[in-house]
Design a protein that fits this description.
With 154 residues, this protein is an alpha/beta fold. The N and C termini lie far apart (33 Å). It has a four-stranded mixed sheet with strand order 3-2-1-4, sandwiched between helices. The chain is 39% helix and 17% strand.
Length: 154
Amino acid sequence: MSDDKRRLPTESKSGEVSAEVDAFLRDLQRAPPRPSGGRGRLIFALDATASRGPSWDRACRIQGEMFEATAALGGLDVKLVYYRGFNECKASRWMTNAADLHRVMRAVSCLGGETQIERVLAHALGETKKRRVNALVFVGDAMEENVDRLCQLA
């Protein structure tokens, strides 16, 4: 496999974070503070199967930087959900700071298995029933599940 195919889309040949990530962070810093409606809630879901292993550490760093950038906007509560193996899908507690997110993400290792996106979506629906979730972000590189079922849940 060539170096270009193995490199993350957010990584340049020199190893710098891409213009897209830089632009996202700049836009986030310029955004107005969140109204007094409270902190935003984001479920950050990750595919931690073996194919994601080579890019895992870099992805953890980028996600942590994005989370740190939200602090100036009134903050963001993040719940990490990840799956790996053939029947393992785990969710963290709601976290309010980047240090906790970094710690939890560093503790996850990638393991061969199949996608479990349906379980991620079901968890997000359950959390939303308890209290509004403003967004779900999913990062993965494959999908082996029934697309109609996933679209219905999404």
